[in-house]
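Hey team,

Filing this mostly as a record. A colleague (T.K.) asked me to run one chain through the structure pipeline before their review meeting, and I want the input and output archived in the tracker in case anyone asks later how it was produced. No errors, nothing strange. Just documentation.

Input sequence:
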Amino acid sequence: MRPNPIPTIKLAPTFPAVTFPAVAATHPLLLGQTRLLSAFDTQTALPKQGLYIADFASIARRLLVRTLADYQQQSYQFLYGRISRAQLFGSATQVSPLAAPGLLFIDIEALLTRPNLWEALLDAMLHDGFTQQQQWHTLKARIILIGHSGYYSELLQAERCFQALFPLYGEVNDEIEAEPHLDNYVSWLQALAHEVNATLTQSALQPLLRYSCELSDHQQRLSLASQPFLQLLTEAAAIANGSAIAAEHIQQARQQRRQRHNAQEQLSAQNVDDAFIHLPTSGETIGQICGLTVIDSGDYMYGEPARITASVHYGDGEVADIERKSELGGNIHAKGMMILSSCLYRIFGRDAPLHLSANIVFEQSYQEIDGDSASLAEYCCLISAITEQPINQGIAITGALDQFGNVQAIGGVNEKIEGFFNLCARRGLTGEQGVIIPRSNVQQLNLPDAIVSAVAEGKFHLFEISHVDDAMELLMNRETGKADEADNFPEDSLYGLVQLRLDGLAGNNDEDISPWFTRLLRKLKLVRY
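Output structure:
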């Protein structure tokens, strides 16, 4: 088994030539919102029932509210930020929006910061009205709460009357399939450009579609996160300086944004280039491998290679996680280490305990590490240390293991590949460097043109795998081997070398140095042992 090289056509999403639709779509900004519109239309028939709209962080909420009001051609008010009692219930000089016909959208997070207002709203809905300035006011507005889905779940548990008052729930969709919706998605992009008083040229569509796939983290899905698009189009329009937005304006806006946010990434790269951080990308080493991590600062993500090492010695079978013992490893990383140990025991410890202990660590790591995406690299590193077979340092690897050795998907695959590629490119591409990723992550690839070109020219390589054995055979240039009926592996295979080392630690390979007479008695079965 060997990893399969990933063809260049799979390294980034591709789209057919798209054009602007001749007829504009109706309500283009509500593309893909079938669930939401179903709940919204249901509330029209049941105006006394409250509606909860669950959106997500990257949605332009005020734009969504206005679009929904336009969809039903109704007046609306949207309360958000620091909501006062007068804003919600009115005053001597201000009419309460609760007592006015139309749609009343309320930011649930803002409302919950004012417990008295929240309780008063629930009471008004229970009694279908409220008293203000010694006068009774009947509820006339359709009340719609909008916020994260987590608040809805919490309120169902915490507020006894919440489910009765807000039985309708509409979830905002954050992505759609690309192929059947491509033309409508172009209308969606046009509508967003119109919101920032800009127009798009034909050339701007392809980079915008690739950016959409980047946000959705999938080659065949398009993001409906309107806020990042509005910001990108606003910056691109400023660069265009009054002219229509073209591809170069999109690319320049994205490049400028990266430069504004990548100070930490540049500092990390400088530490590696100055040899403060030891990260070899050539040669072979026993018990050492290049893993891949992702640093997420909230508004910017980048990949950072990490050197992982393993050492083994006689012991009681424990695979020690130094990160965990030093309180620098998170719970998910600890889980990955336990699965790694289980995978090892599944093959070599089914009938007897392992007389081996190991230590695995992320070298020169001074911050907390979490996630299980390094478990594949850690397993390969451990096998290298046991068999004393060197690992190719020019190939980095990422993937999560299960107990049967299957390699599972991980997050941040594009950032991880780009981080290692940039390191190799600064040192000079040799044509022997590359990255191993899980096969299930190939559909998420959205790599820069520089990496796609390097792979096409054979200067850099990308491999997809589905089982840990595939990775080890490439990294150590030796077959893992297949067990016979007695569960013994060929002696010259990787797993055969593991068995040989484990037998040695257990004392099974020691020569019999007892006196000849004792050996004779053993043969005659006169001595028990």
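Quick notes for T.K.: Residues 331-348 form the longest helix (18 residues). Residues 241 and 498 are 65 Å apart (CA to CA).
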